[in-house]
Amino acid sequence: MYFYVNLLLANLCWFACVLAGAHGWGAVPAMVLALVVGVHLGLAPHPLRELPFLLAAAVLGWVVDSSLAGLNLLHFMPLDAGIRSSPLYMVALWVNFATTLAGCLRWLRGRYRLGAALGLVAGP
Question: What percent of the chain has pLDDT over 90?
Fold first, then answer.
């Protein structure tokens, strides 16, 4: 059951973040992500281990994306007036992805080659 709930909520959050990025809906990703993280922590086998992991995903995602934007290698929609920081919807996508690692992608744990191959094909 947890697998399917996580899969459904991760896709819902992904669509909300993509639509928010395309249309400039600033608060939508935060609201949907709060729902996703709340359900995830409620259903996760080890919620106390998950929270620091989700926070680390948010910080790491923001740092990496902001660095790439600062180097002019990554541009976000809608185009901001010269702002070189990762927007909220991108940080929400990072955290959303992190929820799937203990949820619907748990079956990949320990299967590094398969995970890398799927990331290579499915990521882009």
Answer: 44
Q: Which residue has the tokens 């990072």?
A: 94
d(CA 14, CA 92): 9
pTM above 0.70, yes or no: yes
pLDDT in tens, 55-81: 999 999 999 999 998 888 888 776 555
Q: Compute the distance between CA of residue 121 and CA of residue 91 in angstroms, rounded to an integer.
A: 22
Distances (CA, A) of 51 to 29, 37, 111: 18, 9, 24
Residue appearing with tokens 């499915």: 122
Q: Give me the half-sphere count of Cα atoms (radius 13 Å) on the Cβ side of residue 115.
A: 11
Compute the distance between CA of residue 82 and CA of residue 60 in angstroms, rounded to an integer. Answer: 22
Q: How far apart are CA 70 and CA 16, in angstroms?
A: 25
- In the numeric block, which tokens belong to residue 59? 């910080």
Crossing angle of helices 28-43 and 88-101, rounded to 10°: 20
